[in-house]
Every structure is written in structure tokens, then in C-alpha cells.
Amino acid sequence: MGMMDDGCTSLAWKTDTFSVAGQNWDVCNSQQTSLLLCFANSTLRQWEEAQKARLVLIHIKPNRDSSARRPKISLVTEAGLLSKSGLNSCGVAVFVNAIKAAGVKFDALPIHIALRTVLDCESRLKAIARLCSLTLGTSGHIMIANKTGGTSLEFSHLDIIQMEMVDGQIAHTNHFLVKHDPAVVDSFIFPDSLTRQKRIMVLLGQAPQQEKEGMAPTETFEQMLEDEDGFPTAINRKSSPIRRSETLYSFVTDLKARTARIRLGRPNECEGVWTLKPAEL
Predict the structure, then answer these.
(1) Which of 114, 147, 182, 204 sits 20 to 30 Å CA-CA off 18?
(2) Ramachandran bin of 47, using left for φ above 0, alpha for ψ from -120 to 50, beta for the remaining angles
């Protein structure tokens, strides 16, 4: 799953008073052209060009006459793909990181369907149980978070390994952090994934002090996702001859408030801001 130039970073943090999660989504900057805004209520109602095409902001409201009670959803994805980062009206958020390893399971979930499946769930635990029962068809990482905390699901076509928070924190970049089935071969570590993983854990370690100094947790996360340590292949990336990928959006959620904020483009060179409140759709 993913391109050789992917560089996404996902993270979550929970205490007794708050729960936040988010990610930078990075990909080859040829994706950067405009943003489309789409409202869905069983059929597509409106498209509004804003700034970067191929990136789509979708709001989904279940049909009122449907017998199935599903959450309302706000998500960002690429045009033609079902889902990437998102938040639903129950306060369940989902984020994704590319991990490259050989192997495909054709009777399991494709990753973008798995992401959309999470957003149809009322809780983090239900989402985890559903993905683990259905299994995933390729390799990758999905972070699922709500007000009760965040969980990393690191998977190949042969297994899913669940990782929980340590001291209320968790983060993931673009390589396997734990051992998988011995039959999983040709696992590839993205060149800067190790340094970004180490850096985001350092930043998370500094977060409690920032909270004591009065910084809001969502503000702390947005600051982390602006980090340029190791530039240009940093958490906040810039396309260069070293790596073509660049941060296309930053997505931070307040999971108790059930809201999210998207910053389009590199977060310290923001080209637009959207506040998502799926519970109010």
C-alpha cells in the first residue's frame, strides 16, 4: 500500500481531561491542484471547487428512512477513493499510514474500504473488532481514536497486530514497529520513517509540559505537525530532489468535542482551513 514517497505521520494523546488525535498526510506533490467540497445524502448533491483538486472533503448524512442507524461522517480523501482521514458524529476518527510489504489477500478488505468501515462504527472498540474480523488485504497502518483513547492497527495480508497507548500516547509513521508473520517478506522501511517516528515520540514526550504551560492539546498537536526537524523529509515535509512527497494536509481532532480542523497544504504555509463538525450535519 502506498507510494515509495509517502511520509504520513499519525498520533494520538489522551488524559483524564481530553483526547486528541491527528495526522499529516503526505504524498507526491503532483497531487496538489485543488480541493473539492462534496455533500452526500445517498447521492452527491453539490461540488464546490476551493483550492486543490484530487483532494475531496466529503460530508455524509445517512438517509432518514434507513433502518440502519449510522453516524454522520466528515472525511478527506482523493477523488475516486472511498476514504482517508475522517471523523464521525460519534467522535470516532481514523488515520492511515502507508507501509510497504509484499503480499495480497484478495478476499479481505482493501484499505480504503477499511477506513470507511471504521467511520460507520459507533465506537473505537467496535471499529477495531470489525476490522479484525474482516481482515485487511495488504500491508499498512490504521489509527482509530475516540474520547477513550487511540489504537494502532498494524497489518499485513496475513495478520493484524493491535498496539495500544503507552502513558496515554501513541504515534506511527511508515514502517512496521512490531514483528509480523514470518511469511511476510520484502518489508520496506521508508528512508525517513525511522527518524520521523523517533521525532514524533520526542514531541509527544514534551506535550505534558506544554499543557502545564497552558497550551491547548489541539494547538500542541498542530504545532507538532508543523515540525521541520530533518527538513525537507520532516514530519512537515517539502518536496525536494531527496523525496518528492510533501505534506498536503494536516488533520487534528478534538475527540471529546467531536470536531476536527483541516489545514490545507503544509501547515506552516496554510492555504485554507476547514472546521468539521459531523455531529451538526
Answers:
(1) 114
(2) beta
